[in-house]
Design goal:
3-stranded antiparallel β-sheet; homodimer
């Protein structure tokens, strides 16, 4: 794999479109729908893609799919990969491969209300392995650019604003936002 | 679906185990591995489960799978579902169904460095629809418990600690943590 010219052309067109866009025009909305399938097993639908999400048996599930926090780790790794690929293409840095291992530590006593600890991650670690003939300085600079622009890394590092509604038997119990 | 007795038994066993555990014994590590597959397409491996993650064509990809921020939304919806199912079983609250729609707004100009906006979500919305013969007060209380204990909701709402390493051609460029 050398510099990906067709990818850089596609991305340059995307960037040019975004430069012309107002904030309102630029903002995109992403959506996922989920439903409980029995026990702790769930199904997520993202556009045309379906995912089974479950818990391992040690946490009360039947292990028919990754669990939600594993999905978050996969989201971080794949987001990093995509942002590496995109900026490398645009900057003309050749990449022969990118492999990432993501780990998250979590104390399940938080989820189960057994101890006063946060239910989310204690820490998230990601190890990036790059194969490239580019000079080390280019790869170090690429990493700085990637970490400053990676959406899922920002989602993890910066507290996100969340809002919700609750409906019971098709009757809204809370006002909508 | 009424109260799930076998689930509540499994969960009670898990909770009992966690009560006996020290912090060190309780902490679990979750892992995902990812690799770039060409263009912006990536593959994530979570234990025995493989996922293709890609970007839609408008963002330079080939749309062979959900994108990373969509995975985060699916993680939130499925995590909420699982925590609803778990606490309903333990508390003896019957659930006939849980459906959740999760939306996230994001300005892609942050990712592409075209405007000084955060690359992550502007806002995340999740709409929970429950079907249940339980009294409204029980469902409202269940929601409070779920939102206080849902790992992925905590991951989104609370800034997470992240650490990373970078290796180039099998040589570590940064000290390990």
């Amino acid at each position: 794999m050398s510099v990906d010219r067709s990818l850089s052309q596609a991305l340059n067109a995307t960037v040019e479109g975004l430069r012309q866009a107002s904030a309102e025009q630029a903002v995109a909305t992403f959506t996922a729908r989920t439903e409980l399938a029995g026990g702790l097993q769930t199904k997520a639908s993202i556009r045309q893609f379906d995912l089974v999400v479950d818990e391992p048996q040690a946490l009360g599930g039947t292990d028919q799919g990754p669990n939600p926090v594993e999905l978050v780790l996969a989201a971080l790794g794949t987001c990093q990969e995509i942002v590496y690929a995109a900026y490398a293409a645009v900057l003309g840095i050749p990449l022969d491969g990118v492999h990432i291992k993501v780990r998250g530590t979590l104390d399940p006593r938080g989820l189960f209300g057994v101890a006063e600890v946060a239910p989310g991650f204690l820490e998230v670690f990601y190890d990036v392995e790059i194969a490239s003939p580019a000079p080390e300085a280019d790869i170090v600079r690429l990493r700085e650019i990637v970490d400053a622009h990676c959406p899922v890394l920002d989602i993890l590092r910066r507290a996100q604003t969340t809002r919700s509604t609750l409906a019971l038997n098709n009757r809204l119990l809370t006002s909508a936002y």
